[in-house]
Amino acid sequence: FGFMKELGYSNCELFRKGRFRPATFWRPAVQHTSTAHRDRCLVTTFTLADTPEAEVTVINVHLQAGPEGPRRLRQVVDALETVFKAAKRSKLVAKPERAAVIVAGDFNGDERSAAVRLIEDGVVDSTFVEDGVAVTSKAKRSPFPPMVDAAAAVTTRPPPPTLVLPELISVLTAHGDAGREARMSEVTRAALRR
């Protein structure tokens, strides 16, 4: 991830295991305060240098792929509950349900998936079906109010591109094909400059 340092991102938290691991980067103006590793979810909390009395938590996900709607829903529920419990313990958050939370990453599902519906609607009940299977036997509720899909809410420009690669690890490591690594670095730099 050397190219990220060139872009001013001085620190990184990488999920501790698995082939497809979320990574969260931050710049020096951000103070890292805590990290929790949940099932395919990296939960990282920060304060900003200019407002150290406020916390922001980033849930960076790479949810289970395939016909695994129930597991993806459990992964998101677990991550949101982890943030809520930490917010209750925090001296910086007056109302845990109003904590500043950003959820991002690879959901391995679209806006109709249970994981995304929980985030955007705040609840998924026992009638919700994904891939022909009920995702839960009882209602799952987010401890937070419904959230907004920031990319979908922007109407003045097209959404940012998604890079779809058949195999990503070698592109991100020094052991991969040098041409692909250089191209991936170039594309990522351009996307981050926007």
Structure, described:
The chain contains six helices and ten strands. By secondary structure, the chain is of the alpha+beta class. The strands form four sheets. The chain has a four-stranded mixed beta sheet with strand order 3-4-5-6. Helix 2 links the parallel strand 5 and strand 6. Helix 2 (69-89) packs parallel to helix 3 (114-121). The longest helix has 21 residues, at 69-89. The two termini are 19 Å apart.
How would you concisely characterize the structure shown here?
By secondary structure, the chain is α+β, with helices and mostly antiparallel strands. It has helices spanning 2-6, 69-89, 114-121, 150-153, 169-172, 178-193; strands at 11-14, 23-26, 30-38, 41-48, 51-62, 100-106, 123-124, 129-130, 133-134, 140-141.
What's the SSE blueprint?
Blueprint: H1 2-6, E1 11-14, E2 23-26, E3 30-38, E4 41-48, E5 51-62, H2 69-89, E6 100-106, H3 114-121, E7 123-124, E8 129-130, E9 133-134, E10 140-141, H4 150-153, H5 169-172, H6 178-193
Parallel strand pairs: 5-6
Antiparallel strand pairs: 1-2, 3-4, 4-5, 7-10, 8-9
Helix pairs in contact: 2-3
Shape type? globular
| Straight-line distance between termini | 19 Å
- What class do helices, strands and sheet pairing give? alpha+beta
Strand count:
10
Proportion in β-strands:
25-35%
User: Count of helical segments?
Assistant: 6
Tell me about the biggest sheet? 4 strands, mixed
Order of helices and strands: HEEEEEHEHEEEEHHH
Radius of gyration: 18 Å
**Proportion of residues in helical segments:** 25-40%
How much is the average pLDDT?
83
Question: Uncertain segments of ≥5 residues (pLDDT<50)?
Answer: 163-177
Strand order of the largest sheet: 3-4-5-6
